[in-house]
Each structure stands twice: as C-alpha cells, then as structure tokens.
Fold these 2 entries.
Entry 1:
Amino acid sequence: MQISKRLEAVAGMVTSGYTVADIGTDHAYIPIYLVENKKSNRVIAMDINKGPLLRAKDHIRQHQLCGCIDTRLSDGLDALAPDEAESIIIAGMGGPLTVRILENGRSKLGACKELILQPQSEIRSVRAYLEQSEYRIVREEMVLEDGKYYPMMRAVKEAEQRKEETYTDGELRYGRYLLREKHPVLQQFLQHELELNGRILSALKEETGESAVSRRREVETEIRIIEQELEKYGKGTKE
C-alpha cells in the first residue's frame, strides 16, 4: 500500500516484530502498511467513531489481512487489554487529546515498550507530559508534506528512574533530538515561524491596550527562542 510521507514516517518508527495498537486508525492505512511490509504480524486498529472503523474494515478485507489486523470501537485505549500491544501509535490528534488518551489509558500500558506519537498541535504539552512519565523520547522526525510540517517522536519505557537534564523551553517547543541533529526540515520550520512571528509583531506594534502588550511580549519571547535555536545550525538567521 502506498501511504503519505507523514504516515510512512510514523510507521518507520515502529520496532519490527512488535504487536501494534493504532489509536484513531481512520482508514487503517498504517496497520495495512505495517503488515504488508512485514514490520508487524499483528495490529489492532482502533477508532472512537463507527464510520472510520467501517472504512478500516473494508480496506483490511480488500488487502486480505483480516487474520492479522483486528478492529475495535474504542475511546482511546479503552478496548485494549494491558498485555496486548508492545507499540502504541497515536497520530494525527491534537496534543491535549494525545495526553488525555495516554493519561486515561495508563492501566493499559503494561506491555507497551514504545509510544509512537505524531501530535498535530500543542506538541510542547506532549513532550512535557512524557518528560514526567515513565517513557523517554529517544528519537524524533519531521516531514514537510503539502505545505505542512509534521513532527513526530518515539518514546520508550524506562526500566529505571532516569536522571536526565531537564528539557529547555526550546527543546520542549521544537524537539531535543531534532535540534541536536540539526534536522533540515526543522530549520525550514524555524525560519517559517520566525518570519510569521515577525509579521505578527509588526502588526501588534500598531495596537494599544493591555492584551496587545501581553501578546507582543509573547511574540517577542517566541522570536528570541527561535533565533537562539537557529543559531545552533551555524548559519545565523534571516535579516
């Protein structure tokens, strides 16, 4: 099956041989891709809505993979047993919803060795949550597709209490490993955000009032952090 660059990158983070639970599976593209490419022998495709789950079942039947992929109607991890999945995928949801699913489903994570997460918004909140959890981010990726930037991460369960340095604000916003690796797509994203915030700041300079002043300070802080992170690429920032 041919899937989008975003979904292929998400699937590429899964450890080969793991049993996978795909939360919010929609059309079951990732489960089908994982089985057809022999990355997983068993996948549980889960969705909270009946419509997407029916579409998922149709696609699974068309690919003759009913024996390898189960489908379940589920709110988050509710329909998952604690010992079923070694890898859990949550892709395409907002950051707060991703955190809620993980927090509400903590009792279902018994066998889960890795989390593959691709939040669509408020990604800082997901990284902050993982920093305080028993999972540690060990890999990050970012792809640009159809004009949109998609960061994603793989977090693994820690056997012992870790003693790592606390994330900086920049690392929470943009990703510790993306920054360390000087990821080229992240650099494009940072330049894009710098230009966008520059335009916002220019517009705010014409406004008065307490809310405008507060918002201007927020944007100035954002610009300062972006410029600091861009300096790590060794190419400076755009004038």
Entry 2:
Amino acid sequence: MSTSSAAAVNEREPRLTLTDRIDIIKNNRFFPLVFPLAMLLLLLLLFTALTGGEFMKKSVIMGIFNQSFITGTMATAVAFIYSTGNIDFSVGNAMGLACVLGALAYQSTGSMAVMVIVTMAGGVLLMMFNCTLCVTFRVKPAMVAIVAMSIYSAVCVVLVGAAPLGVDYGISKTLEDGFRYGSFLVYFGLCLLLYHGTAIGRKLRFIGGNEKCAVQTGINAVKTQYISFLFAGIGVGLAGVYQTIRTANVASTVGTGMGTDVMLATVLGGMSIFGGTKSNCYAGLIGAITVTILNKGLLMVGVSSTLIQGIRGVVFLLLVYLNSERQKTLPSRQQF
C-alpha cells in the first residue's frame, strides 16, 4: 500500500475524543484498584508537605486510624447494599440508635457483654427494617433513608436527653484493643469470603448490574437483598460497638453525618455506588482511610468546617463521575 493510500485510510478512521479516552481509562479493570491507592498516597504526601511533617506525628496517625476503623467497618458493610444498586445513607443514624440501645442496656444490667449484644442486634434489626420498606413494600431506598434518618435521630434525642449515656471506661479501653481488632478481622475476612468466593457475592453483583435479567436466570432478588441488608446490619452494629468503646459514652448526636462519610469512602475506595460488576467489599476500607486523611488534613491546614463540607461535596461528585458509570461493554469473567 502506498503512503498516500495509508494516509487516506488513517483519515477515515474515527479519532478518539477526550471523553472516549476517559471512558477507556475508567473501564480498565485495574482502575478501581490503582486509582484509590494513588489518591491515598497523594493526599498523604500533600498534607505532610503542607503541615511541615506534623501530619505524620503518632497522635495524628492514631487519630486517623481510630476514626477510619469505624467508617471502614460501616463502608465494608454497606458494600453489600450498594452492590445491588440500592443506596442507604441512613446507616450513620442507624448506628447511632444501636449505640443508644446498647448503652441503655448497659446502664440497666451493668454488663458490657449485654451492651455488645444489644448494639449488634439493634444494628441488624434497624437495617432489616429499612430492607423491608425497600424490598417488600417497594419504597424507594432514598426515601426510606431520608425518613429513617429523621426517625432514628429523633429517637436518639428522646432516649438520651441532654447528658450522654456513659459506660465503663476501663473495660472500654480493654475492649478497644484485642476485641476490636479480632472482631474486625473476623468480620472483614467473612465479608471477603462471602462476597468474592461464594455465589452470594455473584448474585448481588448480578442484581446490581441488571435485576430483571438476574430474576430471569432464577435468582431470588428479594431473598438476596435481605441477605445484603443482614450483613450490612451486622457491620453497622459492630461499628456501633467500636464507637461506644472508643468514647465510653453515647451522645444523642452519635452517628450524625456518618452516612455521608460512608458514601464518600465507598467512592474513594473505587467502588460504584450504583452496583454491578465494579462492586467489591474491600473498597470501603481503603476509602475510609482516605476520607479520614482528607478531613484531618484540611482541618490541620486551617480550612473551616463549612468549606470542608463543600470540598467533600465536589470530591464526591467527581469520584461518582469517574467510578460509578456502568460499563458499556459486556462484563468479563474477572468482574464476576
């Protein structure tokens, strides 16, 4: 073929636009893993430089670790819900009410074991209540979340009152080490196994990708979604226990705003909040560390809390655009 003929063929070939190139990058199967880790490293280096190294002090790192531990547990939990295409941002308020119920149980019995059991049970029951409204009564998940946030918050205010509910400080500090680490490792390992190693996770992602198609293949969508809210409830209850033993008291405002942190952690971790093939249960843990670094770093460089909320909103919208668009190609074996 002559040079002129080759040039003519090249001219007829469609040229990739900027949007096409961005879509190619987003649809790469390694993007959901590489992008969150790059964001985490970038923010860590940025705030270390802006604070003159103060950001790497042990006290700051431990504060980030303790807060991200709670957010990461909840983000891991809601991955089961988000993978089905449902969005529940009332998990923070559900965790708060579970904490209140657990603290009241402790004050009635004086037993930390009872507090743990009641908090865990409260998280499961509240999330199953949300699931019943969404799945059985067909109420939109967003509407359920809005109503649930108001109800759970109001109940917390009524039950707690002006003074926080206290639990034993010494036992709380004892539980904060061995119990917290051990229970989280068991829960996180179980989530990884079920989500990525069994049919449960495949069914969840299938429903999130196309619920009608999933039902036609014989998947029970109602049962599967109840399972997703069940595991989410366990994580919410567990995060409630971590919150209580961390502060040794429960205020009426506990959990307020954490639903937004969980959603931001989810997308920062590289997972789609619209479900489907890009879903995974480990993204929330990576994202929780990143969002905690973002909050702490902005505060340390002198950014006001009001402006921080605006910055978080912009970051959230940008990441939803990058990570949450469903693929235009057929899913590969690796994605399922």
